Structure formats: structure tokens, C-alpha cells
Input
Amino acid sequence: MAPTVIRATVAWPPTRLSTNGLLTRLAGTGYSGYAGDGGAATLAMLSSPSGVAVDLAGNVFIADTGNQRIRRVDTNGVIATVAGRGTYGYSGDAGAATNAQFYNPGGLAVNAEGDLFIADSLNHRIRKVDAQGIITTVAGNGTNGYVGDGGSAIQAKISMPAGIALDDAGNLFIADYGNHRIRKVSPFASLPTLTLNNVTTNQAGDYQVIVTGAGGSVTSSVATLTLGLGRLAIARDGTNILVSFPTQVGFSYIVQFKASLADTNWNQLATIPGNGSTGSVTDPATNAVRFYRLLLRSLVTADGHRGNDKPRLESAAGNRACSRDVRREGFAARHTADRPAWRR
Output
């Protein structure tokens, strides 16, 4: 379904025009102030609301401009604050939107995923609150001006953005009020990537990546992290498959396989002791597609303890990538005929 965006001149207090032409009051008592969260929106106090948007579920978002907050009226008519702590300023990116500061928020838009976009007018920025309630900046560097076309939106200058809208492709359109222009922000074609080279298997694990602009504003709360652990090389040798991988002294390597991602169990192929050089295993398989996993096992220590098996590396032979089901079990490899690539 297409994103639902309402563009309107907001009456005081916010009102609603039904399909039969009946005008009703949606929120606000008509008195300026801030009160009423958790109760009926018609009994709440707002201050100079200037923008509204509706999501696919029917929730109505209100730019409560004078209160420096964004309020939401749910389908039961209950009002709540979803962004802004009520003071002028610019802060809060990468955290809970309810702790953020705005400076006269105005235009609103909601996409099909439930992300709320906010024209933070006098901060000269466009902010986004995702479906988990985390706020980030998606356009504008905070300086009033006009510069940046053709480059990163968060490094661009905009001036007192007013109305905003989204199309079905995810393009964000901005009424750049002070610059007398309409600007467009195109969605990322893909996530940003980060590669760490020359790391060891001991450094494998779970990572969270935050990408920030020069000014410290968050540009992406999700990024793809690649660990350069060395590649699980897969090659055909006649009807056999040759699986090779770098090893380290102090570990043994257990190679497992399965023929389909739908299989719940892995089959053991071989166990190779690590000696600091390349380990290899020959799989006499004729299948066009195989999925491999490499388990690391610490060698037995002097006190007789053995480390746990840890799934680390996986790959697929053939022109097919591993799915998310495999990624949850360890490192996933996206293999092509000439060059596999590792991705966490």
C-alpha cells in the first residue's frame, strides 16, 4: 500500500472532516498549553499545531509546534507524545525520540513502514523517528542556507523546511521554505558498509555500527559489518568440491555441510587441526549447491578443559547466496563463481 500523507491547513484545534462531509474536533480543547497525554485527545491541550499526518493503521500524528513535541492520536482517540521533550534546541539523535529537542517542528509525513518524518523548521533539518521510536537526522546540517545538491542530504544546507511528503519509492520531498525551492532526498540504494581487515577469529562476535556525519548527527543506525577473517574458498575439482580456509595454531576446525537451507541438521565432513597455514577438505559431492559451516574448537588446555564449539564461517558453493536463516547461526558467506564475500 502507498504511504498515507495528509497535507492540510490545520485548524485550531485540529479537526476532522468525515467522508460524509461532517466536521468534527479530533484533538485539543481550544486553549493553548500542554496536557492530556494518556487521555481523550479532545480533552488535551495543544499549542499552535501546524502539521498532521496519518499512518496506515489510522493513527494521526500532530506537530504540536508551540510545545516542541509530536503528539499521536490513536484509533481509540487517546493522545500521547511520541517525540520531543518540550524545550527548544537540537539534541537526541540515536536515542529515544521522546528525549529529543526540536525547534518549531512543522510538516509531517509517514511511510508504509511506520517511520515518521518531521520538518524541524528552525533547526533547518529533517528528522526521522523510526518504528522503534529512535530519532535521527536525514537531511540538513543545521546551518541556514542553500548548498549540497548532488551530495549527502545530511551535509546539505536547507532553510526553514515547511511541508514534506513521500512517494511510493521512498523519495522524500521538502518544501525548502527559506530557499524558495523544493528539494528531494532519494533513499539509499543499499546500506553503508564497513570492513575490518587483519582481525583474528578471537575477535569474531556481534557488533553494532553507528555511522555519523562530520557534525555528529547519525546518518544510519544500521550498517553492514564485514570481518576480514579470511575466506572460506570453495572450488570444483572434477566432481569434488575443495573447501579451503586459513587456520590458527591453538584451534581445531570442524567442517560441516548440508544440501539445503531447509535442513535443520548439519553433517560433519572433517576435523582439521590448525597449524597457521591453509586447511583444506575434499567433499566428494556431485550436488550443484552445498552449504558449509566451519566450527572453531579451542584445543584442550593443561587443566583438561575444552572450549565450546563456535559456529564461525559459512559459505555456499554455486551461484546462490545464503539466506538469513543461515546468518543467524554464524558468519554467512555470499559466494559467486569467482569471488566469495563475507558478511556478518
